């Protein structure tokens, strides 16, 4: 009998959950073929897993586009597949659909052709959507969050339809809520402002932070154990259920008032940084999960889930250890709409202009004042849902204007005064100092509070390098 370790083909190993799954697989003695998009993350992975690459424990497979990838050679000798990959954060609607739906189907078809009988897939628990967009609606939508969540749901529907027609392939789909926890030691942070769900917890050490609306969650380390445990789960043919679609969440729910108290008690050095506003009251309990079935499928016992206090402290400690991370609400891709979608009900729009300095150069001697000619880069989003309505960055040119003379909305005239070149500010502008009851065309509804990320590029014809 062969005693060689099994080989698992995994997508998404450069992601938050996937990096934990990779480490858990190696810990349990598997060999791993990592399907990754070429780029900085892949180069980082090569440097951090050099020993595993040299010894054959890890193999890297370049896969630029999962929806069209030809994987016959890569799937040779593979015992099972774990599919965690999601489309990149800045993908278009069509790319998101192709990556989510067609990508999943392409991987399933080729896995079946390679004789692979077991596939584990990461699913999701919808956060906001009441109506799943159709394929045509996805292509017409300008809501990144609705596009992302709808495509994940459409992908799951397509997966189960494929599974119905191919019952000899055992598929387990693990539906996860918001997933928190520390990054692995090998995780690649592309920029100091790396976005992610963990930022919901990081907001607890931001004085003017925002509470997440839901306390239902799972620790990423438990999620990783579930994915690896699913490789040994009973085959669906031996079960009474028609499919293995399992909700996997912590038996605890976050009580944010208690979370702040834990940080105050256990991390006294952070007391001055703790969120100032009172936590909203909530009667929400833990996610409804069948823990007997979870233990049967994944080998994870209810009492073995990581308690929330450990999740919280490990996550905050990890962030603080990286201290270069800014304490701002700056996100990329779908992460910004996700944050607003989950927190919108927890925060009312301000009634006064809110000005936050997110970056200030060390040398700052000349400041913008009324009457000055300036150039500003900006990105504008709706406070209500995080949707972007305009950005000078998309055009490549900063906006020229004369400050304080009514060329722009009042929130800009007031909020940009006092800036120096190179300084960045976030302006949260109430409707009365924006476009009021008239709105602006089809992109800014009436009575909208607006959020602008701004950077002063020039002041009276002088750039930062010239001042």
Number of contiguous helices? 14
Q: Level of helix content?
A: 25-40%
What is the level 1 CATH name of the largest domain? Answer: Alpha Beta
Give me the count of strands.
16
Q: Which structural class do the helices and strands define?
A: alpha/beta
Low-confidence stretches: 325-336
Mean pLDDT: 85
Describe the protein in words:
- This protein is α/β, with parallel strands linked by helices.
- The protein folds into two domains: 7-321, NAD(P)-binding Rossmann-like Domain (Rossmann fold, 3-Layer(aba) Sandwich); 354-460, Chitinase A, domain 3.
- 30% of the residues lie in helices and 18% in strands.
- The chain has 14 helices and 16 strands.
- Strands 3-2-1-4-5-6-9 form a seven-stranded parallel β-sheet, with helices on both faces. Strands 10, 11, 12, 13, 14, 15 and 16 form a seven-stranded antiparallel β-sheet that branches.
- Helix 7 links the parallel strand 7 (178-180) and strand 8.
- Helix 1 crosses helix 8 (220-229) and helix 4 runs parallel beside helix 6.
């Amino acid at each position: 009998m062969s005693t060689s370790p099994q080989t698992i083909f995994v997508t998404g190993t450069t992601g938050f959950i996937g990096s934990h799954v990779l480490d858990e697989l190696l810990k349990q003695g598997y060999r791993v073929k990592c399907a990754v998009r070429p780029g900085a993350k892949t180069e980082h992975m090569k440097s951090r897993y050099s020993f595993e690459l040299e010894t054959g424990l890890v193999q890297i497979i370049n896969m630029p586009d999962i929806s069209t990838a030809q994987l016959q050679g890569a799937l040779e000798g593979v015992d099972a597949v774990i599919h965690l990959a999601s489309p990149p954060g800045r993908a278009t609607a069509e790319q998101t659909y192709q990556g989510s739906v067609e990508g999943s189907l392409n991987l399933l078809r080729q896995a079946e052709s390679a004789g692979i009988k077991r596939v584990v897939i990461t699913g999701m628990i919808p956060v906001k959507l009441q109506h799943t967009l159709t394929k045509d609606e996805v292509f017409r939508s300008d809501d990144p969050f609705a596009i992302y969540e709808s495509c994940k749901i459409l992908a799951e529907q397509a997966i189960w339809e494929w599974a119905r027609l191919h019952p000899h392939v055992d598929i387990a789909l693990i539906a996860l809520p918001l997933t928190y926890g520390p990054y692995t030691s090998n995780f690649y942070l592309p920029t100091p402002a790396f976005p992610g769900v963990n930022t919901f917890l990081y907001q607890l050490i931001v004085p003017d932070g925002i509470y997440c609306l839901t306390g239902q969650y799972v620790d990423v380390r438990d999620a990783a154990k579930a994915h690896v445990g699913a490789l040994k789960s009973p085959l669906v043919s031996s079960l009474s259920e028609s499919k293995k679609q399992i909700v996997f969440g912590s038996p605890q729910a976050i009580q944010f008032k208690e979370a702040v108290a834990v940080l105050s008690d256990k991390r006294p050095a952070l007391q001055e940084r703790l969120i100032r506003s009172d936590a909203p009251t909530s009667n929400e309990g833990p996610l409804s999960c069948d823990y007997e079935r979870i233990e049967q499928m994944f080998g994870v016992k209810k009492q073995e889930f990581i308690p929330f206090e450990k999740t919280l402290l490990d996550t905050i400690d990890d962030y603080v250890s990286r201290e270069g991370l800014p304490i701002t609400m700056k996100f990329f891709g779908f992460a910004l709409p996700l944050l607003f979608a989950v927190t919108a009900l927890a925060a009312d729009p301000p009634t006064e202009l809110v000005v936050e300095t997110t970056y200030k150069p060390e040398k700052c001697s000349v400041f913008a004042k009324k009457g000055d000619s300036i150039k500003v880069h900006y990105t504008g989003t709706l406070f209500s849902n995080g949707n972007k309505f305009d950005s000078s960055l998309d055009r490549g040119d900063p906006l020229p204007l004369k400050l304080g003379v009514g060329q722009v909305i009042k929130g800009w005239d007031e909020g940009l005064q006092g800036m120096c070149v190179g300084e960045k500010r976030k302006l949260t502008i109430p409707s009365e100092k924006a476009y009021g009851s008239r709105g602006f065309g089809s992109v800014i509804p009436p009575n909208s509070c607006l959020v602008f990320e701004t950077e002063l590029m020039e002041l009276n014809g002088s750039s930062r390098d010239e001042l």
